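G.,

No rush on this.
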Amino acid sequence: MESQRLKIKKKGVIVAHHGVAVDILFESGERQMVQVKKRSGHVVGDDVVVSDKLLTRLPRRTELCRRDSRGSIRIVGANLDVLGVVVAPLPRPPFGYIDQAIVTARGAALIPVLVINKCDLEGSEILVAELTATYTGIMDIFVMSAVTGEGLAALELFLGQEFRSFFVGITGVGKSSLLNAICPTLDLRVGELYEAGSRGCNTTTVSTLHALPGGGELVDTPGFNEFGLVDISPEDLAGYFPGFESAMAGRCRFRDCRHRTEPECAVAKLVMSGKIAKERYTTYLEILDQLEAGEARFKSRR
């Protein structure tokens, strides 16, 4: 009888990853901590089956990957629907950060949305105006304050569409404050900005998945500054790049055009006419350089 009890299969989802153990929420509502190897490959959002103390991961619908500073590929979330890009007037997003996030989302078949937090800060309207002018029509934009609650209802309504969302943003933009505002019972610790350089303390050390009161789920994970794009080729970059949609509807002279100096390039024409901002085109070229460098390193190892 005891042997039969241990072999019962229980299906659940990983709701927290602690490095050498994962916290699983089963369909019955029961939770269980299961030990795993340090580099087991399991991530928050994975659907799993536990049987006889064995953990089996089920196929993923989607997965979000990033390349770390050492060049290793790391999966940071599974079975996601939405990538929420959180920015704030302090600290301001690094140049090209939002565009890289959009490319990452589109490459992973996720819906990108922009969340501009800390709109209660003095001067925040400058960043709001800049980003609204740049990204309206490219993705949904939510302007809000986790402190005052302004704009929170619209974001909650969006997340409540049974989406599983993953928030990213550089340290200090208020992701934990935002999550506390959406689900106050979580009581995540919030860090203060350092005065020197206006950098934030990263307060999240464990990746976790939370069910939201209004529906949907949200992943809270340690902040990181760079995406390190993966699974996107230099040839495919323009197809994912925000603001290039109209150019992709046109036709470049060469099928493998990378939109640098090739003749009769549809992207170059839009840049020259001002329909694509030069700053955005510069970001595209910088990301293209990264992808081409990665491609060259890969070929040199073969």
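When you get to it, here's the other one too:
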Amino acid sequence: MEMGPLQHVYQRPGPFVTAYLDTSGDAEDAAKAIELRWRAVREGLQEQGADDADLTAIEEHVREHRAQTGQRGQVLVAEGGEVVLQDELPAPPTDLPAEEQAYVGPLPHLMPYLRRCMTKVPFLIADVEHTGADLTLVRGPGETDEIRVDGEQHPVHKTRSGDEENHQRFHMAVEERWKRNAEATAGEITERARKIGAQAVVLTGEDQQRSLVHALLGDAQDLVVEPQSRQVSREELRQEITRAVHAAQISEVVEEFRREAGRGGRAVEGWQDTVEALRRGQVRTLLWTTDDDHAGDLHIGAGPMELAADERSIKETGGEIIGDVPASAAVVRALAGADAGLVITDPDAVDLTGGIGAVLRYRAA
């Protein structure tokens, strides 16, 4: 997951108010239930000295939220009387301790959000036929759009009537229409996949037309995956694709980390070396295997790369300490500032000192 899109959040001076809210819509009076949950979170924020303008901004978003059925949640971050980040969570944040559901500090507390975002893999399903295709755009749990791609309708079926010459001419006309419809479908798939940032494309439907579309996808061919079974629900397919994409991403980064670490190359692990690499802007992808989203505190300065366990490291470079924050909050800001990536996995995938490591852009001199 690339952290660059979060840069706009960290361009704000702070302090920040971070709220994780259960917005599940299964209760009989869902709107009232959500309001009551927000009151509890708001009380926790007020106890930490949250600015009234920030609380009002979040409350307006909560009131405007349209309850939907199913188990879900939201993360909301406010600063300077504005909501600067709002996103859906794939499940209620009820597993978070109360102090993490409501957090006020110099930086937003985003690691719980990012951990949950790992289950949001956007992908596209194309049910292909000779006359077009039905596209399903899946952004995450419960977030889908249906789009119909209509191609030329007649003739699209071959027949055996007529003399041999007319028969061949008719078949060629049909195959040309198949190809033109495949081109239209492939173009729409490519464009829609780009717009939603799809990490996978699943092709179903008529075998021959599916092969034509696949051949015309261009760069999007690399996204095509084959599900284990086509006889599953959309939610089961979403979960399967999510697991497959995550496994591939984690495997790729872990393999590179091990290769570089084994030859003393572009890899570091442990808090001291990884934080130093973050300070230098060396980190390309950070590996995080700890379940502890606090993992102690770090000192921070005003700049995104100003983080350290030792105050002197910041002061010696002319910076000023603006506060102490959970280590994960400082790390995420540094990753966003460096436009670096983050991979969250469990310790079984890779054994890292302190639960943290990184693949670097370059070796330190």
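The domain at 249-360 is CATH 3.30.1330.30 (60s Ribosomal Protein L30; Chain: A;). Residues 164-196 form the longest helix (33 residues).

Enjoy the weekend,
O.
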